[in-house]
Amino acid sequence: MIRRYEQADLTACAAVFCAAFSAEPWNENWTDSLAETRISELMCSPLSVGYVYEENGEIIGFAAGRNVTYLFGREYMIDEFCIRPERQGRGTGSEMLTFIAADQKRSGTVNIVLNTSKGLPSEKFYLKNGFRQAENMIFMSLNLTESYYKS
Length: 151
Prior knowledge:
The protein has a single domain (2-144), classed as Gcn5-related N-acetyltransferase (GNAT) (Aminopeptidase, 3-Layer(aba) Sandwich), CATH 3.40.630.30. It is 32% helix and 26% strand. It is built from four helices and five strands; from the N terminus they run E-H-H-E-E-E-H-E-H. It has helices spanning 10-22, 32-43, 92-106, 121-128, and strands at residues 2-4, 48-55, 58-70, 73-83, 111-114. Strands 1-2-3-4-5 form a five-stranded mixed sheet, with helices on both faces. The N and C termini lie far apart (52 Å).
C-alpha cells in the first residue's frame, strides 16, 4: 500500500533512508539520528508532502518533497526518494512514482522535479519513469567551508 507520510513514520523512514544510502553506489554514512533530523526538516513545512510504500506493516520506501508555485503552476519537488536496497529493481520505486504522480495530478500539480546524481542508476531509473533532463538547467553548489570563502 502506498499512502501519504505521517509523523509516526519517521523512525521507519529513517531506517529505509540509512539502508538505501549506505548501499552501493552511494556508500554514505548516515546514522539513524541524522536521517531522522533530515527527514524531519524536509517534512516540517506546511507545503511538505511525503509518501510511504508499506507492505505487511513494514515501510520499504518513502519520498519526501514539497509543493511549490512556479511560473506555469504548482510543482512537486522531490527532495528524497528511496527504496530498501533488497526491493530495488523489482518495480517498487516505479509503482511509488506512479502513485505520487497520480496523487499530485489530482491535487492540481503540473510538474514533478528533482535532482539526482549523473551517471548513477538513479538517473536511468528516473528516465525510465518518464523524467527528462532539463537541457537549460544545471545544478550548482557553493561550499562555504572552502578556503576561498573563509574570513
